[in-house]
Amino acid sequence: MLIELNRLTIPRLRRVARALKALHDDRAFVRTLHADVRGALEAAVQKGAPLDTAAEVSPLLIDTTTDSVLSNFEDMLLAMEGVANDRVVRPSTEALAKKADAMTLRQRVFPQRAKAIIDLSMSDQHKAMRDLAEVLTTDREATACVRRLGIDWAVAHLVAHLDPYQRAVRSSDGRALSTDAEDFHAALTRLAVKVTALHEDDAELRRAVLGPYEVELAAQQQEERDARKRQAAKRSEDPTK
Question: Distance between CA atoms of 207 and 213, rounded to whole angstroms?
Answer without folding.
Answer: 10
